[in-house]
Amino acid sequence: MIDSDIQDAINTQIRNEYYSSYLYLSMSAYCESRNFSGFANWLRKQSDEELVHAMKFFDYLNDRGGRVVLESIEQPASEFGTFLEMFEDVLEHEREVTGMINNLYDLATSKNDQATLVMLHWFIEEQVEEEQSAEAVVEQLKLAGDNPAALLILDRELGGRKEE
Question: Which residues contact 9 (CB under 8 A, 6 or more apart)?
Fold first, then answer.
């Protein structure tokens, strides 16, 4: 049986992962409304990944004999400013999620829960990738500036993102 504090923390993380998915889906819709389907595709794929993360936590909690209790998901913003501002928000959000995963790891360490520590290693590695991916787009957007041609090229490139 899993420790109740870890169970509660994982339930909160499930909510956080669903919120991340919802946030990126809202960003995707914003990009679609501006006719930038490549940016929308990248964010849609990011939203899908967050659902996978939520389900990894969901399944883990069930596998450990815990109880999944779904929490309310806050409504995300629907306006995001420039693409650079939006992807800076994506990067900041991923850094916040990294902090959440690190806090879960610290909790599991304090409870001497080796199984949860092993499971969280996957998320720690995933967050390195998540931050790097978002940061790459931020840097490309900084280079593009207000150049419409550069934004269109980047939109086309981001449209090629496939399922992982």
Answer: 103, 104, 107
Reported as a single tens digit per residue, the pLDDT across 90-120 is 999 999 999 999 999 999 999 999 999 999 9
Residue 76 backbone class (left: φ over 0; alpha: ψ -120 to 50; beta: rest): beta
Backbone phi, then psi, for 97, in 5-degree steps?
-65, -40
* C-beta of residue 77 within 8 angstroms of C-beta of residue 26: yes
| DSSP designation for 112 | T
Q: What is the dihedral of CA 61, 63, 66, 70, to 10 degrees?
A: 40
**CA 47, chain centre distance (Å):** 7
- What is the reported pTM? 0.94
> Pseudo-torsion of CA 98, 11, 103, 86, nearest 10°?
30
Task: Say what the pLDDT of residue 55 is.
Answer: 98
Q: Distance between CA 29 and CA 14 in Å, rounded?
A: 23
What are the helix (H) ranges across the chain?
4-33, 37-63, 83-110, 114-144, 148-158
Query: What's the pLDDT score for residue 1?
Result: 84
pLDDT above 90: residue 163: no
